[in-house]
Amino acid sequence: MSPLTKLPDALARYERAEAALIKAVEAAYPIGAVVGATIGRARIYGAVENHGGPGYYAGYIWIVNEATGKKRHFYAARRSLHDVEVVSLPSQGTSR
C-alpha cells in the first residue's frame, strides 16, 4: 500500500481533531468573556473578541487588552502556556 493512499484518512482525522479543538476553545473562552493571560513578562486582562478557525489559528483567541485597548492573540488551547484564566463570563460582571 502506497503512503499516498493514507493521506485522505489522515486528513479527515486531522480535520475532526481541529474541529473538536475549535469547539472546546470556543466553549472555554466565549466571546465577551474576560480572561487574564501572561504574555511575555506582563499579565494582561481583556475581553475575548474572536476565536481561530479551521486552517487559521485553531486554538487561538483574540482579546482586547482592558488597559491599552490593544488587540492581542495567543494560543489558548494549552492554558499553562500563557497561564490563562477566565476572570468573568459574558453574563457576569467583571471581578478580580
Describe the protein in words.
It is a single chain. With 96 residues, the protein is α+β, with helices and mostly antiparallel strands. It contains 2 helices and 5 strands; from the N terminus they run H-E-E-E-E-H-E. The chain has a single domain (3-88), classed as SH3 type barrels, CATH 2.30.30.520. The protein has a 5-stranded antiparallel beta sheet with strand order 4-3-2-1-5. The N and C termini lie far apart (58 Å).
Main β sheet profile? 5 strands, antiparallel
What is the name of the CATH topology?
SH3 type barrels
How much helical structure, as a percent, in the residues?
A: 25-40%
Outline, from the CA principal axes?
A: elongated
Number of helices: 2
Ranges where pLDDT stays below 50 over 5 or more residues in a row are none
CA radius of gyration is 16 Å
Q: How big a fraction of the residues is strand?
A: 35-45%
SS-based class = alpha+beta
Please write the CATH class name: Mainly Beta
